[in-house]
Amino acid sequence: MVPVSPIRFTVATIIRTVRVLGRLRARPPYWPTEGYLVGGAVRDLWFGRTPRDLDFLVPDPAGEAERAAHRLQGNAFPLRGGIFRVVAGERVLDFASLQKGGLAADLARRDFTVNALAMNRRGAVIGPTVARADLRARRIRAQRPQVFEEDPLRSLRAVRLWTTHGLRPEPRTWKWITDHARRLRFGKKPAWERVREELAKILESPRAAFGMAALERSGLLAAYLPELAAGVGLFQGGYHHADLWRHTLEALDFLVHHHPEAGLELRLAVLLHDVAKPLVRQWDEERGYWRFFYHDEDGAELAQAILRRLKSPKAEARRVAGWIRLHMRRPPGNRRGLRRWVFEHRTWLPELLWLQVADVAATRGPRAAPGAWQKLARVEPEVRRFLRSLPTRPLLSGHEVAALLGRAPGPWLGRLLRDLLAAQAEGRVSSQEEAKVFVLWWYEAKAPNARRSAEP
Which pLDDT belongs to residue 334? Predict the structure, then answer.
């Protein structure tokens, strides 16, 4: 008798346990002429969610994709492995054919029991018997240990589902995840685009801080984001009440709960705002605590390198790096200074302020003075008002300034116009007559070299 491999034996065992688990009234927004809805979309329908990604097993994938594209006014195109995809707005529909072994074999090859589900047109949900108990208990159970080697993204996906769906890994699966995380540190990783997608879903969740903490406990943080893992247990001292990693988690949790509309870019900035601290930490003998000189500037560069590795869009990386570079430049307390600060940082506001508020709130924690972060947060409405009222152009054009001074244009003119616009933003100049006075004063007081270089 030919021995059966452990993988084949396990799959065969799962196939024998496939049953009808229940019936759902909820239906996806599109259904093919025949076939099954499979995978995470069925899981989401079970939990009352509306899935945007739909996977179907059908006899004619190409034909079904064309019909779906026509009905949903989307675009159909082929993928690898005989899969056809339709993109219609935010919906993504994939159509594939049943492989050898039929539906039961397809479900047995999937990663977790809560994903090994299929639904027919009448709403009957089919899957391994244990899946029903796992769905009820909101539990992640890997169907076999080899699923993490077959697709190395699956350990990260398990933590993501724990974060977004509250599906907690059962003990044996958790051990397989942590073992896989150790192998990932030095082994082959999934495509970074796929890693970014899962990390984005974690960060966009209301439980983003929990998800990042779970990544650290599993060892996946060290595998995918070792720069952040370097902050775990890193003592800061001084004004900080917690180690670097806990500070980061508290800042992220603060942002999510006090500014839930924060987008992915801002959440990334909060996550990475202190990422350079382990590299720049220096002991200050005179003050008796650690200092982190230039961690804002170095952190911006390091954050960009991390986001490049994750294949993030260039614009996203620039925004995140910009906020990190400026996060230590807090707004002044007086009104004129605040207007000037808003003018100078207008491209980065109001998100920059929320990064600073989250940072301040997480620095002292329970030891913070009453109203410490609230004082900074109260500036936000005024910042928004200033942003709406900022001037967009100087009251005098470059030609008018040059004519007023009787000088030929030069490099000095650009500096003068920028300072004139800033004076308008601060409220020191509000008319053309005041602008002329400002120009004469500026040229006399600030540009002696410009006067000499402009002489004929």
Answer: 86
